[in-house]
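Below is a concrete protein record.
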Amino acid sequence: MGAKPFISLPISRRSAGLCLTGAFALAISSCISDGANRTGGEYLSQHGVLLQDPLYHVTLKGIPVDSFWTTDAEPSHLADTILLVGSDSDFSAEARLAFQLDDINSLFRLDSLDATSLKLSLGFPVPPIGGDELDSAAKASSADTVDLEVVSWSTTDSGLTDAQWTDTLNTWNNRFLIRNDTVAALERFHPIRDTIHIAFKTAYTTGSIQAQPLPNLHAGLVKIRGHKNLIECRIRRIPGKSTGPAMLHLGGELPDDPEYVYEPILIFGPYGTIAGTPSSNFMQTMFVGGRRGVNYSLMYSGPKENILTGKVRGLHVVLDRKTLLDSIDADLQRQNLPLQPRTTSGDFDLSYFVPFAKMTLPLDLAKTKLESGFPLQINMVTSIDSLLGDTISGGIRVDTVQQGVPRILWHTYDPGNPGTILDDVSITYDPVLNSGDARLRKVILKFSRDSVFNDTSYIHVGESKQRTTTLQGYGKSFLSLTLDADSLVLAVHSYLTVRPEAENNEYRDSVTGETITDLERRMQKFLHSGDSELSLRAIHGFQRLLNRTRSNANVLQDFQFQPSVFSAVDTSFIVGGDTTSAVVDYPVLSVVAPKLEGKSLKVDVELYLFPLKAR
């Protein structure tokens, strides 16, 4: 995990092949048409764009990438649970649960002499989509039964007012369930540790509801009867004991119907499972923000440049604008074609109109693994890097924060008055006192005025983590931070993305022009097992890159290969006896690995270019 996700690569000028197609705008309808009477030429004329002939079809092979990095997988998955075991996988996860005992009589249902009178019930519902694949993954475990550790924290309302108790609930649940670095802060509250045994190989075949006693938590709870209580648990594999790959999708947020039995539930009393247990003797997870207090945190220890599915972990690619224009010009010159003059000053350089463009990412077949062969939907998001305040002129900013010395790194501005600073945004890097861990540090992100965005995360010396936040005054933007921790200093890599836009990857019927909605006919934008490359439309991104620049600044264009929220399609789903396709509605844990040459990445680019006349 120590590899830096921001990788700056040397730029080399590459020549590219170019082929010329068509002499007039309307002659390209077969190339860029979205259907009958929807030619690129008609679209251009409707928008008053004046074109010079001809249209250039440019194919650039092996363009070296200026820099690339990945955003980490979404760490916190509220209202969902997943559990991974296995020592031969780069994935790991821990399920997190919260139970609120507002009924002070709940603990009196425990038999103080019977340590098995408190059980944690875990169910494994078989989903209608992808159930066979989940069952196969579970059966791949090398052992019938796997040991898992349940770490619990318990706090009561003893000595607290009702208002203080409410504040305690909000603080603990926000810290434990929603944020992703909370366990480090909770560890010093003397966690209670129990071990449960889960039958992985039969979890889905039997639709099993497995209840396991928590004797150590039981021993602690019987001592505090008569109080309200909050119990928070993390379930994780025991290192060295859980072998073989397996994934279990635990019952997370399920509808309030008989299937609630698959949710994580605490059972009080002499009952083996939730089936047949009186309602007064079991407790579902609490509600947090209108959702059940269940969650999982996903970790990945593999190469930083890989695209992951699960939620979203995208690969960002930045091309150098001058290198791209030089590559285009070199081939235009060899073809004895006129070059487009470049603007040497001003904030807008109108060079070309781009009616169609795509970027192709080469893949490493040996390292790309799609779970159960599910095809994955990938999207392209393009955006423009900002100037990151008045101290840096674009690109990836690198700062060093000394331990114990707060440092202001960014400013936020009034959207209506860009010259007015609203907030100073600082980072503080400090040791965690009384934690018992000399390598543990906390990183405090602080806004001088808008404190709602303040956040604290925890990191160990030698570790690298990523965070994402927003900065007011930059519209729909996000600030991507990579934190590399040393004993006395924190290296902060930051990149501010503004005006992100998802490329339109809809496909239209070539005759009717109607949008294609059938999944089978849209498979061309899905990644399949064995695909050696991934091609996505990048029209807006290249239009911005070619036509937008800033005086005396290096404003970059960010192309992001990003898995769809619905991360996989089951092509063997059967409805009414017919095989169809359906979106898999649970996280699919797969790796999409770009093909690197050493530490360098190259992409192919295809462009249709219209040189623009002066207006």
User: Anything to note?
Assistant: The longest strand covers residues 417-431. The chain has a mean pLDDT of 77.
